[in-house]
Write a structure and sequence with these properties.
The longest helix has 27 residues. The chain starts with a strand and ends in a 6-residue tail after the last helix. The protein has 16 helices and 23 strands. The relative contact order is 0.13. It has 504 residues and is α+β, with helices and mostly antiparallel strands. The protein has a 7-stranded mixed sheet. Strands 3-2-1-5-14-13 form a 6-stranded mixed sheet, with helices on both faces.
Length: 504
């Protein structure tokens, strides 16, 4: 009997395939980066064909590294970068254009027009989202308006839309030869097109954005035995394997962190930061700039919801220090450099490269560095970049506490930036609560694997998952309350100075 579960973790900068055993321990992985296409300021694109090819290669290489074939896997789950929008031809299988990435702001004029025309409240009420270029509907409308022949193909029923999960599943289950055009409730909840209560495409929202329903995938629970079809890696890999789970990457991380009870909260530190709090079966409407989203749904059970604060640029700010400024040669050097100074020397860095997401939702914001004097060095800027990651998360936590009426007791963390121990200590200091890192840091892939395994009975219940979670490290806060308040007040002043640059 197969003893392993596989997980595709398709992220903003790379794709990894991981294999886990029944104890939730990693036994294999392979990871491949893909190109970041930046045709104009504020525009971010990916090549969907490249992502598909890298996904297949990562699967082959991970399995080969430990001598496994596809039939050694009981199931595979998919976790994906959310909101990123792909359109392709159902007859040829080829994309009509590059994917428009979640960070891309070109559709801002479309969502502003929706707001001006009075459609904003409909989006907030039905979809639980603020109208924003972050989400998929505006990106899809932009493609329909600007890609030659796409609107006509959509009218003929030949154009398919999906977030990256749908693109991968369609191709991995047969493509033009019977590929499954599906998505799950978590990814659908990021489009501004799905009704949160009915968990189905909303006709009024479709009309608001002018999207033909025929383009859209069928919506499935996040974990189910047959909901996503059967995947075959290649003709020589030993057969097919059930694709029994699909989730947006941050919802997958919630499962990987076993945040399965109302109130449990995690923060994932990657290209951006994504902080989610489980609210159970209750749909909590935010009054403080957060997103109401689907957390997950297992087959035969009600949907579980979450409050979420999404931050566009956190780890990407460290990449900017490396790639654009050249003050570090690799991301890990940010910690080494920042440790050479005791604090940021009064410097605050707001990395609003493509606007500010939660809790501000200001597409007009742009990055600023304030508080500079001749005393400051590149080390102070490196430390300010780490503090920016933590202050942006602090803003989200404050909004979340206001919405829920409950203080945060401990923050579970995961993602690549958690390897930066100084950043995690700063996060505990700035929040004033303990920060707990999971022993398995790739919780997005782990959550996709858990959901897939539960879908086919490999794990029998959530209790099985809870006893598998292990803490790797914990950071306790050390700052005084006075220092914490003063630092956050200065940060908010810096945020104010980042606003209205795009329209200035």
């Amino acid at each position: 009997m197969p003893e392993f579960v596989g997980a595709i973790d398709q992220g903003t900068t790379s794709t990894r395939f991981m294999v886990f055993d029944h104890d939730g321990r990693e036994v294999a992985r392979h990871q491949l980066e893909h190109k970041q296409i930046l045709p104009r300021p504020g525009w971010v694109e990916h090549d969907p064909v490249e992502i598909l090819e890298r996904t297949r290669a990562a699967m082959r290489n991970a399995l080969a590294s430990i001598g496994l074939i596809t039939s050694d896997l009981v199931a595979v789950g998919v976790a994906n970068q959310r909101e990123t929008t792909v359109v392709w031809n159902s007859k040829t299988g080829m994309p009509y254009a590059n994917a428009i990435v979640w960070q891309d702001v070109r559709s801002d004029c479309i969502v502003r027009e929706v707001e001006r025309a009075g459609g904003g409240e409909l989006v907030r009420e039905r979809a639980g989202l603020p109208p924003s270029s972050y989400f998929s509907a505006g990106k899809l409308r932009w493609l329909l308006d600007n890609v030659d022949g796409l609107a006509q193909a959509a009218a003929r029923g030949e154009a398919l839309f999906g977030t990256v999960d749908s693109w991968l599943v369609w191709n991995l289950t047969g493509a033009v030869d019977g590929g499954r055009h599906v998505t799950d409730v978590t990814n659908a909840s990021r489009t501004m097109l799905m009704g949160l209560e009915r968990l189905d495409w909303d006709e009024d929202l479709l009309a608001l954005f002018g999207v033909p329903r025929e383009m859209l995938p069928a919506i499935r629970p996040s974990s189910s035995r047959a909901g996503f079809g059967e995947m075959i890696v290649d003709e020589t890999s030993g057969g097919g394997v059930p694709l029994s789970a699909g989730l947006g990457d941050q919802q997958a991380a919630m499962i990987g962190q076993v945040c399965l009870r109302p109130g449990e909260t995690k923060n994932t530190y990657g290209t951006g930061n994504f902080l989610l709090r489980n609210t159970g079966s209750e749909i909590v409407r935010s009054k403080n700039g957060l997103i109401t989203t689907v957390c997950y749904q297992f087959e035969g059970a009600p949907a579980v919801y979450a409050l979420e604060g999404s931050v566009a640029v956190t780890g990407a700010a460290i990449q900017w220090l490396r790639d654009q400024l050249g003050i570090i040669s690799e991301a890990a050097e940010s910690e080494t450099l920042a440790r050479t100074v005791e604090d940021s020397g009064g410097v605050y860095f707001v990395p609003a490269f493509s606007g500010l997401f939660a809790p501000y939702w200001r597409a007009d914001a742009r990055g600023v560095i304030v508080g500079l004097s001749r005393f400051n060095t590149n080390a102070h800027l490196a430390r300010a970049a780490l503090e920016a990651i933590c202050y942006q998360s602090k803003d989200v936590v404050a909004a979340m506490e206001e919405d829920s009426g409950l203080p945060l007791e401990v923050l579970k963390v995961d993602g690549g930036v958690t390897s930066n121990e100084l950043c995690m200590q700063l996060q505990a200091d700035i929040l004033g609560v303990p920060v707990s890192k999971a022993a398995v840091t790739e919780t997005t892939a782990l959550g996709a694997a858990y959901a897939a395994g539960c879908g086919v009975g490999f794990w029998s219940a959530f209790d099985d998952l809870r006893h598998l979670w292990r803490e790797g490290k914990r950071w306790e806060p050390t700052w005084s309350e006075e220092r914490r308040r003063a630092g956050h007040a200065r940060w908010r002043m810096a945020v104010e100075r980042s606003l209205e640059w795009e329209t200035a």
